[in-house]
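Reviewers of the previous submission asked for a worked example of the structure-prediction workflow described in the proposal, so we include one complete record here. The input consisted solely of the amino acid sequence. No template or homolog information was supplied to the procedure at any stage.
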Amino acid sequence: MRVTMIGTGYVGLVSGACFSEFGVNVTCVDKDVSKIEKLKQGVMPIYEPGLEKLVEDNVKDGRLSFTTELGPAVKGADAVFIAVGTPSRRGDGYADLSYVYAAAEEIAQALDGYTVIVDKSTVPVGTGREVETIIRKTNPKADFDVVSNPEFLREGSAINDFMRPDRVVIGTESERAREVMRRLYRPLHLIETPILFTGRETAELTKYAANAFLAVKITFINEIADLCEKVGADVHDVSKGIGLDGRIGKKFLHPGPGYGGSCFPKDTLALVRTAKDAGAPARIVETVVDINDKRKKRMADKVVDVCGGSVKGKKIAILGLTFKPNTDDMRDAPSLEIVPALQAAGANLSVFDPEGMEEAKKMLSGVEWCENVYDTMKDADAMVLVTEWNEFRSLDLPRVKKLMKTPAMVDLRNVYSPAEMVASGFNYIGVGRPVPKKG
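From that input alone, the workflow returned the following structure tokens.
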């Protein structure tokens, strides 16, 4: 089979590389000449564990290639995936579909024989039908079907998510298109992956509903963590207690500074707008969006508390900047709220992230960029664990204590045991966990 992937961002590049690993011939297309040239040289535009090797192997074997020329890549393809960005529009929160529609128009001009056009980008309900309209208007003689095939990739574990997914959702009313998609996903069918065929609108909404539900779950446990802090309960035990209920499940019940990244913030906003326009407001999701935004801003207050009520003139070490570990993605990361808030309060910040420094430098300024985690702690009055990278999980606490001016930690990911931190001589604040008194 031949597949064309329009867009070499996170979804397009990972999906294209994984399809090629299945034995499919994949051509990835992008207008960014510099990005394509770097990909041809084996330089990845994003950090994702295992991706560089996967791309290298499949390019070497001749199944994966990169180009800026959309027309030749589309001609003769069995399926053309649209995997371009759909960021939130500034001001109103609607998904910006301009890249999707522009891609549809270009694809239409290049179609040659029956082709399945696949919306892989996260798009609001009704986008597939609009893509179909654009293609038919641009090329009335085209022989094609439009399919919705939402992605469910987690940054940091995207390759495994593609190769061993919980499910594959395919939205189409065409049996001809179904057959093409069945052939494309045959390797997953062979390992008994559930493949759910639905209508297009159902598939489009399933993606938004899934991300919104996970955002709700995260926000719920964050609010329970706040309650735990007020009443002296331990949110970790609460999380275990409710997570053992099979109806609830233990995943996404880890309290922290709020969700971020490329998906949850924009997808919850887009669902809220879609629901309002349809006359069926999603009140729970609206509330979640508001709570999460305010939560990230409030995390700086914990740092102020551990510093005795003021951070003015104090040095604060920031451990981690990306929205989650194993990615260099800074989009809507909690650090983008925490760092400016501490700076506004008069703090001097030293920061380190294992993979996100270059992206962070585009968004943050006025901080000391450090070469490793221990460099951030020299003469620091407090350290803040923002992102739970593995290398932050087993810090040499005696060394840390010697480096710091004042041994204090704000652990926004609850990586460390409060009892152990206090026993090691640290002033410690976590999220939703009681801290034993010293001595």
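Residues 2-198 form a domain with the Rossmann fold fold (CATH 3.40.50.720). We consider this example representative of the routine output the project will generate in years two and three.
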